[in-house]
What does this fold into?
Amino acid sequence: GGPASLSRFRGALVAAVLGDCVGGEFEGAEEVPMESVLQHLNSLDDETKGNGILEYSDDTAMARCVVQSLLTRTGFDEQDMARRFAKEYSASPGRGYGNGVIQVLKKLSSPQLTDVYQPARDQFNGRGSFGNGGAMRAAPFALSFPDLADVKRFAHLGAMLTHSCSLGYNGAVLQALAVHLSLQGALDLPQQFISRLITEMEEVEANEETRNDARILQEAEKPFCERLHRVRDLMDKSKVSIEEVISELGNGIAALHSVPTAIFCVLHCLEPRDCLPGSFGGVERTIAYSLALGGDTDTIACMAAAIAGAHYGIEAIPQSWIKCCEGAEDADMDAGRLHKLYHQLSQSG
Ligand code: R7I
Ligand code: MG
Ligand code: MG
It folds into this structure.
């Protein structure tokens, strides 16, 4: 489809759910042989095996809250979004939430709470969380707001409800920017895509909070920009090993060690790869490759798949995968609603 087509919206939101559901199998595993990944993915096609339904985790649970809030409020409403996070957590606390964020979600359900951003600020001795929990649910911001400045602003604020460290919320901004650009067709020119992300993040990271957090955590002055340069260097190499990707970009639970990694997975899988079946389309390649990195597989696959899905569209997603992932059909319906909101906002803006 063309820029911002319905197929791209559906592709992005559905693929994100698949990445989460399918990636859950290997979350936290240190080494994941590609053979195990392909075995797991092949079993999705085999209905007789009766794999049952793969459940989604906190990644999708929170993204669904973001979607419902943006749709119901026709835009960003921090009170409403915070309430939905809290309600979702108390209804299904067993979705695999990060250890720290649970405290925030409990505090957010208190009726006495006046500032919904305060619980997040109290995390980790007042420094805030740098986990990837803000980034894992950032795609819906790109699918709601046509204007780039709005995508950045609301992805930032949406992440701040749980992640007040710049290394957390800037990861959410980067993930939303990547989905935004992919939706416009920017992955047709991968070199320009990565350059564009670097240019945008130069601006996003040009402030006191980012410099402070980076200094305290002993990172480069503009941590995400530095990582995106590493992504570009890896893109330029003719051969890249899994070990190299992990050591250069990471596969961990910090946004800094997972959002640039997810972006690399998408870029690396734009073309067929020897290690992946020739029958795989782009979304399948991206998810398979993300899982083979090990570590925070559900989240890296979820974020990479959202970006890839916005590029390839819904046609690139196997029906059999949709059928065995909890919440995939819902995501498809919601994508249609977000597509409407997006085009409604682009006419009024
Ligand atoms: O970021 P968050 O929502 O976790 C998301 C991850 C995804 O992989 C999900 O799939 C789920 O498995 O969890 O939750 P947080 O608790 O805010 O952050 C995750 C973890 O990062 C924390 O439990 C800490 O171990 C670590 N972390 C920090 N550690 C030290 N200092 C995050 N921020 C800090 C910090 O400032
Ligand atoms: Mg999860
Ligand atoms: Mg995870």
Observations:
- The CA atoms of residues 95 and 304 lie 20 Å apart.
- The pocket of magnesium ion (ligand 3) is lined by residues 27, 296, 298-299 (CB under 6 Å).
- The chain has one domain: 6-348.
